[in-house]
Structure formats: C-alpha cells, structure tokens
Predict the structure.
Amino acid sequence: MARLVAERHDVIPQLAEIFREQGYEGTSLKIITERTGLGKGSLYHFFPGGKREMAEAVLDDVDGWFRTHIFAPLRETTDAKAAIEAMFASVETYFRSGQRACLMGVIASSGAMDIFSERVQDYFVAWKRDLAATLARAGFAGDEASALAEEVLAGIQGGLILARGLEDTPVFTRVLERVKARCRPPRPQ
Amino acid sequence: MARLVAERHDVIPQLAEIFREQGYEGTSLKIITERTGLGKGSLYHFFPGGKREMAEAVLDDVDGWFRTHIFAPLRETTDAKAAIEAMFASVETYFRSGQRACLMGVIASSGAMDIFSERVQDYFVAWKRDLAATLARAGFAGDEASALAEEVLAGIQGGLILARGLEDTPVFTRVLERVKARCRPPRPQ
DNA sequence: GTCTATAAAGCGATAGAC
DNA sequence: GTCTATCGCTTTATAGAC
C-alpha cells in the first residue's frame, strides 16, 4: 500500500498503529516500509536512531496524547464526577471500542519492556495517580480511591486483552461499562 | 546457565518461562539454548517444527494445566462459592502473585496472535464459559454471571499488565482481591 | 540424544546517487 | 527528502559427526 508522507510528524500515527498490532519485536522495517510507503532512506532521515527511535517517538506521542486528553482533564475539571465520565468516553473512543490495542500495554507484556520501562511506567503511574485523586475528589476515601483506580486501569487493559484473545471486541465496552459503574461515588458531592 | 535435561517433557516448563518473559517474537533460539543448556541439535530433535512447534507445545501445556486445575474444578465442585474461591487461590499461586505473566495474554497482545489465535481463543472462551456457569450456580442471574465472568478475567489479565507496567507486582494481588469480592453472591445459596 | 559447523534468509542499519 | 544497493550481523533451520 502506497501512502505519501513528507514529515516526521505525519508518519508517527502510522508507526503507532503498526507497533500496536505487531508489538516492538514483531515490527520489521520491511513491514514499516510497506505500510508507510516510505523507503528506508526516508525513515532513517526522520529517525536516525532507527527502529528504536521510531518506537520512542511513538511512545512519547501516545504519552503526550494521554496527558493532554485524559490526565490533565482529570486534574483540571472541577466536577470530579463529570471528569471521570469524560475519561471513560475518551477511552472508549481512543481504543475504538476495543478494536485498538494499548501500545503501553503491548510493550509492557513483551520483552521490549526492558528497553522502554521508564516511559511505560511513567504513563501508568500518571494515569493511576490522576484517576485516584479525581476519585477521591468525587467522594471516595483515599485508600478506596487508589484501589479503585487500579481496578479501573486493570479493567481497561484486561478488557483490551480479552477483546483480542476472545476475538470479540464488544467485550471491551462491556467491561468498561462495569468498571465505570464502580466509580459511582458512595455519597453525593 | 547450564541445566541438563533429557526429555521433551522436561524442557517445556523452561520454554514456557522464556516465552512468558520475552514474548514469541522476542524469543530467539540463542536465548533458548542459553537458558535451557540444550544445543540446537537437541531442540530440533524434540521439536522438528522449530520455534513454532515449541510455542505450540507450550501453549498446549498451559491450556492443559488450566483445564485440569482451574476449568474442571469450576465445573465439578458442587459448592459453587467454594469453587470460585479455589479458582482465585490457584490463580494467585499460578501467576506468582503477579510476578509471572500470562502466556495467553502475552500472545494475544502481540503479532503472534495471527498464528496462535485458535489456541488462545479456546483458552479464554473455556475459562469464561466455566466461570460464568459457576457464578450462575452461586446465585447470579445468567446475564450478570456472564458479564461478571468477563470482568473477572479482565481484572486478572489487566492486573498482570499493571504489575509489569507499574513494576509493582503487588497490584496484581490487590486487583485480584477486588474482583474476588465482586463475586460474593447476591443471595445465600 | 547432543554437539559443532554451516547454510540460507531476514534483520537493522549505512552509503551514496539523485 | 527519497531511492537503491549493500554491508554486517542475527535469525531459523539443516547436516553430519559422535
């Protein structure tokens, strides 16, 4: 498939999709050249560090997207309950109702975790921290907010695994709905 | 590390551990020879189909273990509540309190899913089916039992992802405890 | 059954023309 | 910026000695 791009910025979403589907080790330069339509010359022009730099750029891009569209809104929306609702809506859309894998989760469950552990860990830590703080603002006790945040993140990651493992994408949305229901605050705010 | 083995049967647990840590694409014959202490000659003697046959053997072994120690007890234990408790205890032990990855989940979130999808899907389908049936026996309505089974499996898989992604193995046990608590039946049986 | 040597293919990466 | 050709290296797999 030929697709013309001319900037490093434009190729990152395509790389992200490939890494999501194939994993880091499963992604070869051959696959990348085929799917992006760019030759190795162009790729190494954009990413002198090669495949590793491509993955780093994609990981940074994903991390940045989540910080902007998920983590910051959790912290900054005054209505905590609405912020949590908005997070679930964004997550459902981002992961295409279960059709799209989580790149951070894919890396975490592969040997490539050794290389990218810092980026992956930062992502999950930030998400857990900001979600737990928002759940606390919504009325959950501190300990319960932290444990519930872990349960929600596990539900999201596990829902994506099940969607692929069962080859049944709607299971992701069903699990997401259930963990969202767990987030209804115990007392009105 | 040198470790002497002489039978195909003996090498499978070692292969399983390697595939769990490195994934399918991330596992090379070099790593396998180093960690098992066997040369390529021995490995191809046991597994003429090479790396792919090694993975198939490991997948079948894992599937068999779960059918014997998790799925069958769920179906056959008369006390449904006790059967579910036993399942959680076995899962906690099998996954070493979060230190060990789930091979089926690792494959499901990699490009190797294309090759092994049938085995992976059968595993998750069987687990979900037998857990849902047991939850129904424990007092949950059919629809709720099915959805709860999905939530539990997602919690297990997601808990394992978080354990690796956060580099915090205890998070697996915490998530497991929470989904176990969700399985307390709504009415006494 | 296990080893070493080796083959054939694919890999990531580089060089240089345009 | 993009291409093609090519370089080493690693990969999976095979052959044959012991």
The CA atoms of residues 3 and 36 of chain B lie 6 Å apart. The first helix of chain B runs from residue 8 to 22. Chain B has a mean pLDDT of 95.
